[in-house]
Design goal:
Length: about 170
C-alpha cells in the first residue's frame, strides 16, 4: 500500500497554449484524502465546469474518490444542458470563473434563475479580491483559488454542502 502520496498540479500556458504537468512527490506526514475516522462519506452530485481538460479530469477524480457524483462539463452551454437534465440531483455548481463563451458568473446567474438555492463554488487562478470585486461573493457563493490541494478541495466542498444541510434542518 502506498502512503504519503501528494499530487502537485501545475498548468503552463506558454504562447497561450494549454499544457499541464503532473508530478508526484512523497511526503511521509501527508493526510489521506478522507480520514479513516470520517463517520460517513460525503454524498451528492456536483456539476463541474472547467475548460482545461487535465484539471477537469483530475478534479473529477478527486471528488469521485471522496464519494461525490460529478457531472463534467467544459463550458457553460454543456453545463446548462447537464443541469436541465439532472437539476433534481445537482447540489453544487463548481465552475471556473473564466470560460470560453459565457463566463462562470453569468452561468451561475442563469442556473440560479432556475434553482435559487443552488450552492456555487467559483474556482479561479485570479486572487479572491479580483474575483469578489466583480460581485462574485453572494449568499451561497464561495471562492476556491487555483491551484488547490486535495484536502483544500474536499474541505471546501464538504463545508459548502454541510452549510446547505444545516440551513435545511433549521428551516
Amino acid at each position: 500500500m502506498e502512503t504519503g502520496v501528494h499530487l502537485r498540479l501545475r498548468t503552463r500556458r506558454p504562447n497561450k497554449v494549454n499544457h499541464a504537468q503532473l508530478t508526484r512527490e512523497m511526503f511521509p506526514n501527508s493526510l489521506p484524502l478522507l480520514a479513516e475516522t470520517d463517520p460517513l462519506r460525503p454524498h451528492g452530485t456536483i456539476l463541474l465546469v472547467e475548460d482545461e481538460t487535465f484539471l477537469l479530469e483530475v478534479t473529477c477524480e478527486i471528488l469521485e474518490s471522496a464519494g461525490y457524483r460529478v457531472l463534467k462539463t467544459r463550458n457553460a452551454a454543456e453545463a446548462i444542458s447537464a443541469f436541465r437534465q439532472f437539476q433534481t440531483i445537482v447540489r453544487l455548481l463548481m465552475t471556473d470563473v473564466v470560460l470560453p463563451g459565457q463566463n462562470g458568473r453569468d452561468l451561475a446567474n442563469d442556473l440560479r434563475s432556475i434553482c435559487p438555492d443552488l450552492k456555487i463554488i467559483f474556482i479561479s487562478r485570479y486572487p479572491e479580491n479580483v474575483v469578489t470585486r466583480h460581485g462574485i461573493q453572494e449568499d451561497g457563493m464561495f471562492y476556491l483559488p487555483k491551484p488547490f490541494s486535495l484536502q483544500t478541495l474536499t474541505r471546501k466542498v464538504r463545508q459548502v454542502l454541510e452549510q446547505e444541510e444545516t440551513e435545511e434542518s433549521n428551516a
